[in-house]
Design the sequence.
């Protein structure tokens, strides 16, 4: 293989569209984050959630957090080497490619529930994942790592023990990856800063009514709260304060990046609401699935209901313009697995960007931008 | 820098670099929506962090580094998102249109490489970065870059033989 084997012409059809460029510009200009804020998830945050669990729910949760940590740290060298080997041989593009199949929605929901128990109650599998050399050796009845194809094979029917083994395997593999990975850093200051001049309790108190307005009274009751101050003006004062925001999260005890959580965003400069949302793969898995064609047709038929909700909740009506799309977040166009619509309304000086859950016909998120 | 200048700077950087980043990230993530999200996060980081650049090359390398970091975060934490075979992507985006069979096969080989090897291959062979530059962008040792290039060559050559024999193995 040499330079002449691969030239830029190979990729000439992979081109960004003008409409995507324009959307990127508009979104970045407004400081809009991506749809599900997926990039906030990091190992350190998972640990932080554990500590917040301790702060909010006391000694028991902290003990279990420590228990998971100890479980990871006490892995025998041979087991660590197995995970290192699995990671080296993991040739999939995504971690999902490392499994023989995707989890079904039902399995995903059950796994999310068990994952919380794993992290917050110390519910662990009785056995480690079985390992065999060849696929022929696997009986198809339990979770099994096959060295021949470097995949974790999942049985057709996953029992609670199977799901716990799956969670345990993934958690340990992630832990080993964290230890092994050389982080790529960009060496610039972080726009995330500590809270100054405002208490976390006051922010939660201010955000709670907005959460309940959209999702109902007592939503996420008893869940942990966490607050982040996102202040890009610290790293670049010329940005002004229009992108400085507080993020107030409601997270389940023992929750992971897959779990349902809620977020309210408050703009720092005028304390107005920037966004309210429910997120997470667990929430997504709980939604009814529709064909691409059905979802496309719902773009028009659901619009009056979406507008009605925005007027009822926030008082905005008669938009100047509307952009809409079937929103493929965890799935792709053509899979006939559509679950959400996205509408972007221009109310003249105020843009409202919403996600609409097709099944329950409810708003999943609203974001507000001043033009 | 006032708002107008800042927005103009953003528009310029999107105009100049979004296509290059799109190609690299799309090959890594194999999905248009994910690629858009990574680019949005990358340009948002550019907007909010406003790093000082010594040159346009420095700016380009920084953008690649941040986007690769975002791709890595994405692949690391977005666990349930399956990789997509080239044929399926072709149904919505004609990325091999106009390519002869040989080039299509080459693209398929790269498409099916694992991400660690693919990022090095793209930066070395397509973007023309040196081993030393890739080492700095990906924050790995020069030795690691060389090893990955070697492994990529071996893998591609193995895949190429398999392909010639009429069997394509997903890597």
Sequence:
């Amino acid at each position: 293989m040499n330079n002449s084997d691969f030239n830029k012409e190979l990729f000439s059809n992979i081109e960004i569209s003008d409409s995507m460029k324009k959307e990127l510009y508009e979104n970045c200009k407004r400081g809009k984050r991506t749809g599900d804020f997926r990039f906030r998830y990091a190992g350190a945050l998972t640990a932080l959630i554990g500590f917040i669990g301790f702060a909010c729910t006391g000694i028991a949760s902290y003990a279990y957090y420590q228990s998971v940590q100890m479980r990871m740290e006490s892995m025998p060298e041979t087991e660590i080497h197995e995970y290192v080997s699995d990671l080296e041989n993991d040739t999939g593009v995504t971690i999902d490619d490392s499994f023989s199949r995707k989890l079904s929605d039902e399995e995903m929901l059950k796994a999310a529930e068990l994952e919380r128990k794993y992290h917050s109650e110390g519910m662990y599998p009785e056995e480690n994942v079985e390992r065999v050399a060849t696929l022929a050796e696997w009986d198809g009845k339990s979770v099994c790592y096959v060295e021949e194809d470097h995949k974790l094979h999942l049985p057709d029917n996953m029992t609670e023990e199977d799901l716990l083994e799956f969670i345990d395997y993934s958690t340990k593999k992630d832990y080993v990856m964290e230890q092994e990975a050389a982080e790529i850093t960009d060496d610039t200051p972080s726009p995330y800063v500590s809270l100054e001049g405002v208490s976390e309790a006051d922010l939660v108190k201010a955000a709670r009514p907005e959460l309940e307005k959209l999702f109902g009274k007592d939503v996420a009751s008893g869940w942990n709260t966490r607050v982040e101050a996102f202040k890009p003006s610290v790293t670049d004062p010329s940005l002004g304060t229009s992108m400085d925001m507080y993020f107030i999260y409601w997270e389940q005890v023992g929750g992971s990046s897959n779990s349902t959580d809620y977020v309210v965003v408050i703009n720092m400069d005028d304390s107005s609401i920037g966004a309210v949302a429910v997120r997470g793969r667990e929430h997504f898995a709980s939604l009814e699935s529709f064909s691409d064609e059905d979802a496309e047709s719902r773009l028009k038929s659901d619009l009056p209901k979406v507008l009605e909700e925005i007027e009822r909740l926030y008082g905005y009506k008669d938009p100047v313009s509307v952009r809409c799309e079937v929103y493929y977040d965890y799935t792709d166009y053509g899979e006939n697995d559509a679950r959400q619509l996205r509408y972007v309304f221009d109310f003249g000086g105020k843009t409202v960007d919403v996600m609409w859950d097709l099944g329950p016909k409810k708003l999943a998120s609203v974001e507000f931008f001043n033009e | 820098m006032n708002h107008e200048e800042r927005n103009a700077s953003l528009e310029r950087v999107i105009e100049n670099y979004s296509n290059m980043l799109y190609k690299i990230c799309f090959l890594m993530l194999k999905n248009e929506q994910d690629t858009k999200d990574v680019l949005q996060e990358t340009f948002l980081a550019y907007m909010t962090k406003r790093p000082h650049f010594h040159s346009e090359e420095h700016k380009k390398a920084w953008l690649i580094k941040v986007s690769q970091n975002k791709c890595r975060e994405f692949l690391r934490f977005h666990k349930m998102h399956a990789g997509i075979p080239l044929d399926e992507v072709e149904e919505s985006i004609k990325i091999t249109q106009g390519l002869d069979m040989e080039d299509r096969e080459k693209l398929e080989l790269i498409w099916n490489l694992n991400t660690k090897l693919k990022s090095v291959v793209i930066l070395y062979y397509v973007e023309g970065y040196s081993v030393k530059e890739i080492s700095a962008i990906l924050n790995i040792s020069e030795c690691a870059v060389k090893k990955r290039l070697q492994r990529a060559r071996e893998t591609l050559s193995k895949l190429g033989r398999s392909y010639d024999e009429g069997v394509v193995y997903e890597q």
